[in-house]
């Protein structure tokens, strides 16, 4: 394969990484082709989130929100991915040799990238966000900036609200150390004994109770300004009261993040659900995966903390003065709507929302919903209509993540009361939603719903629902197939496709998926239309790529367009490289991880890749194959990662209706032409914004909204004429 020597040289020469450029970290895969480690690529994605925070064209409060998203993402990354790498450090040398990368070097590379990103985070916050807030008379004050009235307020607030929670502890060398709660905020305090000023400094910790109180506290201020203070700084101001025999020399913030993995010895024996419940209890006391500290902390204090809390250098990560910056989600807006994104109210999907005969509309033709641009009302109505319709006999749905308050879950409970057979498959291994899903499972069982739970060794990630209805012509099935979860809250911010259909080709095979989930028996009939994980998903995708390769080699037009969240599976990447070398035009729209390296001469010069980060989270998966002019279009729940293609029940479903195929082509074309929010994914991971020679700015999420609104207006006029 051409130009591998260049990749090898980069690999040998680069020992550090930049948050802007990860080109030197490109590895060679087990199959000897260019491959960017998934976690290095993910950090590049999270930097794209940080780019939104520093973009002056983004409204101020939205920039603050992107600081929160970046921080929340990073916190989860350390709890899951970094914890895994830390565990690999402890395995035997023999096992390490079998790994595709040295975990110690990978940890160093990750920490180098994150350190640089954290420095930029602090710069954005302190040098851009704070001054811009002041321009709008919003002042985030430090304790030394408080006036007399504000100091009195802070001292009273501390005594009335914080005192029961701060938990001051003097740290004594070689004594039992206090337990640091996962992701809790603490101040370390540098102390000097008042009666013995020549004695060595002493240390203490004090909890910042952000789990009980808001992180941002409004202060008394004049009518023309808004003053705020971090909860942290209220504790800083008051810390001297907790240590009356000492002078407070300084304070520094710290936070410990703990491993979030559920360690289950054996999923295949015993009660899996009970094992998950027991593991959830242990999660909050898991081993350290990251110890975050104020970069201004003195070395002697840091060394003391390392010893006191049994940390090593791989646990340490410096940040700015404040941690848990995902609390910026709570930042008050003071009613200043002009500093937020302009409203984009969901577009009603009139054919289903206004229909007097919901099922007839589904029989007549397929319907595509594109949330959050479209209202989610039609999905909720699908379940509520089924629950109350006396002709409906069965309702089935897969739940991966469930909203705390869910009209859909209420509808399935109502359906049971109405005498219908209702089956819900709940995936309780959905990370960080395990507890909520278990609670819903118990609640549904109490209501009489038949609940099926996770498989050992496999996650069920398909997004499917099925309704069986008795009609004059006999039993008929209606289905809803989606790229996103049945979750009323995330449907407001996650961009997903959902297909309503009564097409027997689709509904029949969806029923087959549910039979497998409920009986764990392989269906007697295979899948001809759906691509289903554990059955034909991987093999059919490989076949479709290979067909494009054959077409290109025969001198025919060959094209592939993939819109996915993540591309990491080595077998699929190798096939895409082969497709590029054969002359297949490959266009990728990838929000997150992209281990494939586009644009390398002789390897991937026919592959382009971009990523769009904007006000909505791009979550839909779309696979388009030119296929000799037949053009096959699939929507899917599956990313192209090893876990999705090999260890999950995923579904990709074909789009047969011409009007929906045309709409999807238009929407994908809009994204491919984005020259405002699209970033180029290239061999340097530079995250440069894609710009072109066009005088017209194309911001794909805005263009999508107005495209769908125009379609809704045309449809509304057509429906009015028909009614007339």
Return the CATH topology of the largest domain.
polyphosphate kinase like
- How much helix, percentage-wise, in residues? 25-40%
Shape: globular
Distance between the termini: 66 Å
Strand segment count = 29
Overall mean confidence score, pLDDT:
89
Major sheet size, sense and barrel closure:
8 strands, mixed
Relevant CATH superfamily of the largest domain:
Polyphosphate kinase middle domain
Strand content: 15-25%
Count every helix, treating DSSP H or I runs of 4 or more residues as helices. Answer: 20
Radius of gyration (Å): 28 Å
Spans of 5+ residues with little confidence (pLDDT < 50)?
Answer: 4-21
Q: What's the CATH class of the largest domain, please?
A: Alpha Beta
Name of the CATH architecture of the largest domain? 2-Layer Sandwich
- In total, the number of domains comes to 3
What structural class do you assign from the helix and strand content?
A: alpha/beta
Oligomeric organization of the protein chains: single chain
Key traits:
724 residues, alpha/beta, polyphosphate kinase like, Endonuclease, Chain A, eight-stranded mixed β-sheet, 20 helices, 29 strands
Structural write-up:
With 724 residues, this protein is an alpha/beta fold. It folds into three domains: 144-340, polyphosphate kinase like; 350-525, Endonuclease Chain A (Endonuclease, Chain A), CATH 3.30.870; 532-713, Endonuclease, Chain A (2-Layer Sandwich). Helices cover 38% and strands 21% of the residues. It has 20 helices and 29 strands. Strands 12, 13, 14, 15, 17, 18, 19 and 24 form an eight-stranded mixed sheet that branches. An eight-stranded mixed sheet has the order 20-28-26-25-21-22-23-29, sandwiched between helices. Helix 6 (148-162) crosses helix 7 and helix 16 runs parallel beside helix 17 (570-582). The longest helix has 33 residues, at 103-135. The termini are far apart.
